[in-house]
Design a protein that fits this description.
Largest sheet: 6 strands, mixed
Radius of gyration: 24 Å
Distance between the termini: 62 Å
Helix content: 25-40%
Oligomer: single chain
CATH architecture of the largest domain: 3-Layer(aba) Sandwich
Number of domains: 2
Strand content: 15-25%
Amino acid sequence: MPEPMRLEMREITKTYGNLRAVDAVSFDLAPGEVHALLGHNGAGKSTLVKILSGVVHPDSGQVLIDGVEVSPRNPRHAQELGVALVDQELSLVTVLTVEENLLLGSLRRSTGNSGSTSPEALRALLDDLGLSHVKLSAPTGNLPIGEQQLVEIARALSRDARIIILDEPTATLSELEIAKVFAAVRGLAAQGKSVIYVSHRLGEVLTLCQRATVFRDGKLVGTRNVAELDRSGIVEMMLGHVPESGRQGLAEVPANPEVVTITGLSVPPRIQSFDLTITGGQIVGLAGQVGCGASEVLRALGGLIPEARGTVDISGSRLTLGSPGRVRAEGVFFAPNDRKEEGLFLSHSIADNLVATRLPRLSGGGFIRKSLQSLNVNRLLALTGISAERRGTEVGSLSGGNQQKVLIARGIEQESSRMLLFDEPARGVDVGGRADIHELIRGAVAQGNAVLFSSTELDEILDLADIIVTMFAGRIVSIRSRAEATAASILTDMTHGSEVMSA
């Protein structure tokens, strides 16, 4: 008798009001398999994951684990059934220690220091993920974001789950950290555990997974063996077409562009001396791994690091570092890489978020002029492609891609803007959403703004940047035009920059 599938989800349907988020879709997962779950934002994959992890309940359909029909009532019940979820939004409590976070929510913590929750077992888990230097007693909040993500993964592995769901597990990780996650995932599969891998990084899917299931608009498009697919084939399944590639050469510089000259920028302790000239009308991308210093450069230019020192001139006028309010008044807009913690007002509407940084120009006598606000909101909504009927929707209820569009749109088409800074502008966004966000940024560039962005993803760097500045260990390794750059040369500089600099 053949071995049953580890997981079968049959004809699952979930409706929210008039929206059918999942429409009679089926999905299966074999023992020891790493199976990719793909689709653009809003395609339905997140809803399916929530159903399996007990967060929401389906309207109809069946869920079977190892041939037995189950109905996860809540996340705790799903854990009892052998399901563990590592969500793309970290759920660690940063004031607790690493050990306390690893034990947090574990069903086995009340049984004493035994099994996979003993200090020795937790230590081994961290070591396997390359965190041998991290003490169990260390405050989690003191760890870099990439190491916090690895701790989150270690917590899921400590629960002896049969089904592990990894939702965008590498979005904040460096190439070295990603390699450690891949090794851990392969180790799980070798033990007979099954992994659902949700990612927008198609290269990872092709490298790590055996099968891929694609959703589009709440419906199942199909399931294929990864060996039969390539990147363009996956994209076509996700979108129904292959999107046009980005620009391959330098953009035409508009008349009277802003020119930004950065001299001797210092951000202790990582950035010692950063020099760069940015010409408006061209997009400059900072390429590097997590921790390369690109985020610190952008945050310093955005006025968010009081200790930053150096000279920054925008078309002859001096920028005041260390004060976000003064930097903003001087025409600089900064979009952080963490949209939920730093970028958006999640409990407020799309409309409120879009105009949050331009209220003085929409007000008179201390009151917002509603007609002027409405004009601005409608114009920005048209740019994002989000329906005007959704202007009153809370931003926190949107997909990650639409949240990011709102954040990016807030900073463009402002009369006072001179320099736009985007830290990981398409982080956690699918292929289609990324193309929309890139078009928003290109539209801002056409107005003569100086644009500087950072990304740890080669595809995004090569698609969006006109000038590519590669960073390693807080220093610039190389500066190339898009026409001169290749994926191999950029990746070499991102990962072996110390050798380049010492040559």
